[in-house]
Amino acid sequence: MDELSRTFRALAEPARLRILNLLIRSPFCVCELEQALGLSQPLLSRHLSYLRNCGLVESRRDGMRVNYKLNGRHPYLRRLHGFLARTLRADAVGRGDLARFAKHPR
Asked: Contact 24/85 with Cβ under 8 angstroms?
């Protein structure tokens, strides 16, 4: 029950949902998320740390960059993945984030 509760607490924050909306589609580094979401680097790092600590996100260092991706082994995220992808894409803010990223691809 504790892991389920942590998962839903992580999903209860709009900024973390926006991050997940992009990570569902592809791995990103903080600088790419910063550009796509218009959030500050310290704020993004704090939210990514929260997501990583509850097991929803994994990180991998690549030189100076740290790349983040969804943890495909997380038991609840595997079940929620399709729902989150559809729901976040249908949300106005989520669509805006995806459109902004599409204008400035990597």
From this structure: yes
